[in-house]
Amino acid sequence: MADHPMRTVQARPVEVEALLLQHFDADTVLVYQQAIGARAVEEATRDQRMHAAQVQLDEGQPTADRLRALADMVDPGKRGASGPYPAALVTWSQP
User: Fold this and answer.
1) Residue ranges per domain, the chain?
2) What is the pTM of this model?
């Protein structure tokens, strides 16, 4: 890698998918996608909890508690019952 200077490469999801699947099996790519998915869900649930804090000020505790419970249901950090995300390999090259 030291022989090659750093360069920026732009690619569409379908092109990245093709490259990954050339070098890794589908199960490995799925684990990679799940790591990205877990991070995205974590960020979304953090936003949901921030929204719940504002709702608590505006609408009261019961509504805020429901919003937090919904976030907990999918948050991998809270051992949510759902997930992992995605459950199956996302393929951009197929409809």
Assistant:
1) 27-57
2) 0.69
